[in-house]
Amino acid sequence: MEQYLGEIRIFGGNFAPVNWLFCQGQLLQISDNEALFTLLGTTYGGDGQTTFALPNMASRVAVGQGQGPGLSGYTIGQVMGTENVTLTLAQIPVHAHPFNGTFNAIAGDTATGQTNPNGAYFSDRGESAYNTALGDTPVELGAGALTGQVTPAGGSKPHTNIQPVTAINYIIATAGIWPSQP
Question: Alpha helix locations (H) across the chain?
Fold first, then answer.
């Protein structure tokens, strides 16, 4: 069976067979490929006066044109996507980070009425008693919460955003049967 002019196939070889070219976005002279230009026009590039481009499938995955139910719509020749993405804070999932801190308090000593110049503290074990530096009976302090903002972390480096792939060649027929329309 002979191929259609402009037909694209996947080819496992490391060369393009006779009457086929790799789909790598190269510019062709219209004067040398009038029939193929009639089919493709400048859909994939070129100036339309002397040149036109073949589709560029290098490092790309094909997607059908149009729009399926609940899916994005694509027009023929549209190029989209990127291999690497740097996420913003708005794009990452909502999450929380542990917050560890020390709560310092200055309070009066119950026996002497003096202020503890060294500060009092809640221990990091969840105790709520104020321990005086003078050794007197601790003063019970009310429950409280530490609030604050954790400094954002990360290096804003892009991460790979590519599905598992196998590199293979796409080729386009530069000669063949003229495709008739229904």
Answer: 34-40
Residues 160 and 87: their CA atoms lie apart, in Å, by: 11
pLDDT of residue 181: 87
**Interatomic CA distance for residues 101 and 36, integer angstroms:** 70
- Start-to-end CA distance of the chain, whole Å, equals 20
Q: Report which DSSP code applies to 177.
A: B
Residue 12 · residue 168 · CB < 8 Å: yes
pLDDT tens-digit readout, 64-117: 999 999 999 999 999 998 888 888 888 888 877 776 655 544 444 444 444 444
DSSP state of 124: T
pLDDT at 146: 62
Residues 167 and 103: their CA atoms lie apart, in Å, by 58
Q: How many CA atoms lie within 13 A of 13 on its CB side?
A: 9
Tens digits of residue pLDDT in 156-166: 788 888 888 89
- List CB contacts of 163: < 8 A, sequence separation 6 or more: 61
> CA–CA separation, 21 vs 38, rounded Å?
17
